[in-house]
Amino acid sequence: PLYSFYKSSRVGKNQSKAKAFYRKAVELDIEELAEAGDQYAQACLGDMYHNGDGVDENEATAVEWCRKAAEQGYATAQCNLGYMYQYGLGVDRNYSSAVEWYRNAAEQGYATAQIRLGLMYQHGRGVDKNESTAAEW
After folding, report:
1. Per-residue pLDDT tens listing for the chain (137 residues)
2. CA angle, residues 48, 63, 106, in degrees to nearest 5
3. Helix, strand or coil for residue 126?
């Protein structure tokens, strides 16, 4: 979406334009799409609530939306949910759950999840420490 484009460093970060597009997403009722089961809208809402972009920051609500998208198999949301479990954002910290969600996304080829899953094996968080498995991911 445009708000992510303007928030990224690829265009020299324009926070005012990014915030305007976040507000537009809210005006267009992204929540209605998310409620209807659109996994991309659900993941976007999760990200918006996590960062407080266009809505009040609320980690618990971020987890709810992220989980809905993740349970539909959306790899980005699965990785994000793993991150929330790893760092206790909106949920109790749970390395085993983080590993589970990272693995779901990693098995779909999602590179960020593959790296994070490898690091979980490297450090023995939520799994037995295993350098060779870490290197595989």
Report:
1. 434 433 444 445 556 666 666 666 665 678 888 999 999 999 999 998 998 887 899 999 999 999 999 999 999 999 999 999 999 999 999 999 999 999 999 999 999 999 999 999 999 999 999 999 999 99
2. 95
3. coil
Lookup: tokens for 12: 């020299």
Eight-state DSSP code of residue 124: T
User: Which amino acid belongs to residue 92?
Assistant: D
d(Cα 21, Cα 94) in Å, to the nearest integer? 34
C-alpha span between 22 and 101 (Å, rounded): 27
Distance CA 63, CA 45 (A): 10
Angle at 65 between CA 7 and CA 108, to 5 degrees: 80
Please answer whether residues 70 and 78 qualify as being in contact, where contact means their C-beta atoms are separated by less than 8 angstroms. Answer: yes
**One-letter amino acid for residue 136 of the chain:** E
pLDDT for position 94: 98
**What sections of the chain are H helices per DSSP?**
2-7, 15-27, 30-35, 39-51, 59-71, 75-87, 95-106, 111-123, 131-136
